[in-house]
Target: Precorrin-4 C11-methyltransferase
Amino acid sequence: MTVRFVGAGPGAADLITVRGRDVIAASPVCLYAGSLVPTELLEHCPPGAKLVDTAKLTLDDILAEMLDAHVAGLDVARLHSGDPSVFSAVAEQMRRLDAAGIPYEVVPGVPAFAAAAAALNREFTVPGVGQTVVLTRTSARATPMPEHENLATLGQSRATMVLHLAVNRIEELVEELLPNYGADCPVAVVANASRADEIVLRATLSDIAAQVRAAGIVRTAVVVVGEVLTASEFPDSHLYSANRCRD
Model:
């Protein structure tokens, strides 16, 4: 059997990839994070498939389900929100599968930061304004951040920064970003990106915290910081330039 980690997208059920949908349809066992993965995706599961909501399971519980499927020779679709490459906790599952000798594959998905960019109608890499995107989070109840990956250090370049799992600490986040980015730096918060209840806030570092609190946003949101959010005066890219050699 094979375990396939499937990026289930940021929330909208139709933002699953064709490959991800086909994996779900071919897997007699489906493990999914019920608190984040849209239940509509389970409609792609084959008749009689075993469906396991992992929202309240421990790592040991999840691996036990995979081991049971392995013994029975049944492929597993393991659905994770967004894309498995960032903030998905797949690394620890892969480590256990390696130790158990169980094969696995990864099917990429649409990450939350891409859905946020779409909601904002913005490109996060704008010529002459910003060509680097930092994806990070902050420490709270989650796993501690490495000591050298603090916002003061990461913000020194003033690169576009996308923060996951951080909106509930918005006031502390602003205080840490202000010295590098300044009070007038554009900020956007996108909650529930791509879903019917999506909320988009646009502000600056000086007033984003008040907007977040007024909107009652406490989770499932990304915070985007950087000049690319409002940039309008910038050079055209070389990609489509008339001066570019196309031979």
About this structure: The chain is about 25% helix and 20% strand. The mean pLDDT is 94. The first helix runs from residue 18 to 26. Residues 183 and 205 are 5 Å apart (CA to CA).
